[in-house]
Amino acid sequence: MEKIMNILKRTRSALRRSSHVLSIALGTFYLFISSVQAEQSINLEQALQRTLAQNPQLQAYPLMIRGAEAMGTQASLSPIPKLSIEVENALGSGEFKSFDNAQINLTLSQTVELGEKRQNRLRFANSETQQLKREYELSRLDILAETSRRYYQVLALQAQQSWAKRRVVKERNALGIIEKRAKAGAVGQADVSKMALRLTRSEALQEKLTADLNIAKTRLASMWMTNSNFDTVDGQLDTFPSIPTEAMINDSVNNLPGVLNQIALQRIADYRVDLAKSNGQSDMTFGVGIRQHQSSGDQSLNFSFSMPLAFKNPNKGRIQAAQAKLDLSIQQSEWIRQQLRLTLLETRQHLTNLMSQANRMRQKMLPQAQKLLRETENGYQKGRYSVLQWVDAQSELFSIERAIIQTHQQIYLQFLELERITGQSMSNVVTASKGEKS
């Protein structure tokens, strides 16, 4: 009976553990399902956060910066004291055959660096660390800009895919109308064939856009080293920030990340010159020791001083090389500043042109094409227009709709270029509403 009771107790305990495990499993499954559902769509902020957290190029920089900081620690170290032991007048011949008449010297020496070597080493190492951080900032901007470019590529292809679906639906409806008119004898079979061919081409384009969209999603997910486990990306392509003025661009040139990085490189070159000059100055070594005279048992102190006699600067070549690098860095700094300013002004002008084109297409060309299609479709059904005129009107509208999508994508790419160069989000500028002229 006691054995049976023990078995029952163990069974109840096992059931309780099983219930606990089952609840954990169900909870995990629920979280998994929730994460899968959340992955049906992502937004730009999520894409950028994942890139920052998982992009391998960015993950390498903390290790590189840690290594540079370690070199700064190494540069701060001073020369360590040196302990030396000398034995003289021993293991020779005659009275010096043994250690009875030997002299034993125990000396402690210390090298004293002159020319601010330690300070210049430390400044040089710290400047390399700071430049590496600037380089990380540039890489971060480049990689985030690339993620944004790929994101807007997906967004544009999504819009084009929706456009292609609408086109296929409209052309199928048009084909149905033409087939009814052909059965009634109002039009010939050639009209049916022409519309069917146009529909087949549109379906092929829709398939191509679907394939391009899948590739674009894969390229986007590769920025954070995962598969494209999302269906769509969120966002609109018809709302833009306002374009910065030329005065704003001129004011921002000196604070551009690329300019600041070049200034950091110039600072490294400057400190390299100082370090080379310091290394060209000789150091002094002081020593103090005690001498043991074995023959008499007496002891005495001894002092030493040494310093290289450099009649010419032993680091002259390195100083000249460092100075040449500094001169080159100064020259490149001004060139880079002017190039970045020119790029910003060109991008601004390109943006202005694209915004003007987009406004013209939305406000004038699109309504005109829609009106033309309505009139042509009604006229075709009444026999006033041919199927060729109807198809041409459809093509005009479809071409303008797709051109608007592509122009909006180009506008966003130009804004991304501004963000990449300036290191500032254009969304911080006052947002322009849809259709607002820049």
TrEMBL record:
Which top-level group of life is the source organism from?
A: Bacteria
Molecular function terms, GO-annotated:
efflux transmembrane transporter activity
Pfam families per the record? OEP (PF02321)
Q: Which Gene3D superfamilies match?
A: Outer membrane efflux proteins (OEP)
Task: Supply the InterPro entries for this chain.
Answer: MdtP/NodT-like (IPR010131), OMP_efflux (IPR003423)
Q: Which family does it belong to?
A: Belongs to the outer membrane factor (OMF) (TC 1.B.17) family.
- The protein here is known as TolC family protein
